């Protein structure tokens, strides 16, 4: 009887321990989801590699795999973070950009430019492989961090130029639009003036006839006065 009681007590403790572990695991998982959502929200939005936390050397398969992993991990149905939907959309956009051949080539060109600049600053060959051991000597911050920081600066510069070009184009388009509006308004005024001119034609003719008639009457009166004199 005592042995049975002890066994029951032991099983109960084990179940309790398992429940606690499950609870802790769930809480840890929830916390990790929150952390990942925050990381994505804070990632540099112009660099899809930052958002997906991938290296430039990532293959298309690597990109798809990482996207699936993260999208499931921070999916709004699982993550309790209030901004999980926003992070999910950011993640989706990043994957889309890296899956687009042209967009990825543009980003890779900027990343490569940043990499070359950092390598030159350390007097290292610009054709070093991404896994070259000499890159490990660059610390605090690491070579990878330095490249991303420089790429961020370049991307910001490019974005500023792009936005200026858009504003300039919009300004030019606005100027052209105003010119067209003025031309249209001018044509409308001309049409309206012509219309009014036609509508007032009879009035002008009548006025002229009245004026001419009065003028002839005055001439006749003067002639009669001259004859009588």
TrEMBL record:
Extent of Basic residues compositional bias: 217-229
Pfam families: DnaJ
Annotated stretches, region: Disordered: 178-229
Annotated InterPro entries: DnaJ_domain, J_dom_sf
Domain J: from-to ranges: 47-111
Ranges of biased composition (kind: Basic and acidic residues): 178-207
Domain of life: Eukaryota
UniProt name for this protein: J domain-containing protein
Annotated source species: Agaricus bisporus var. burnettii (strain JB137-S8 / ATCC MYA-4627 / FGSC 10392)
């Amino acid at each position: 009887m005592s042995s049975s009681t002890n066994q029951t007590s032991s099983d109960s403790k084990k179940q309790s321990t398992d429940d606690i572990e499950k609870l802790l695991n769930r809480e840890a998982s929830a916390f990790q989801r929150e952390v990942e959502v925050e990381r994505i929200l804070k990632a540099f939005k112009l660099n899809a590699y930052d958002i997906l936390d991938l290296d430039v050397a990532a293959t298309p398969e690597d990109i798809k795999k990482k996207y699936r992993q993260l999208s499931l991990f921070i999916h709004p149905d699982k993550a309790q973070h209030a901004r999980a939907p926003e992070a999910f959309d950011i993640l989706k956009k990043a994957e889309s950009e890296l899956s687009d051949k042209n967009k990825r080539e543009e980003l890779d060109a900027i990343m490569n430019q940043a990499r070359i600049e950092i390598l030159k600053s350390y007097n290292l060959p610009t054709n070093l492989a991404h896994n070259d051991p000499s890159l490990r000597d660059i610390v605090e911050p690491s070579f990878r961090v330095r490249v991303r920081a420089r790429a961020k600066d370049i991307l910001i510069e490019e974005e500023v130029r792009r936005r200026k070009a858009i504003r300039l184009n919009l300004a030019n388009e606005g100027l052209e639009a105003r010119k067209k509006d003025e031309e249209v308004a001018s044509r409308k005024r001309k049409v309206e003036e012509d219309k009014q001119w036609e509508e007032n034609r009879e009035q002008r003719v009548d006025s002229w006839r009245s004026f001419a008639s009065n003028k002839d009457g005055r001439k006749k009166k003067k002639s009669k006065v001259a004859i009588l004199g």
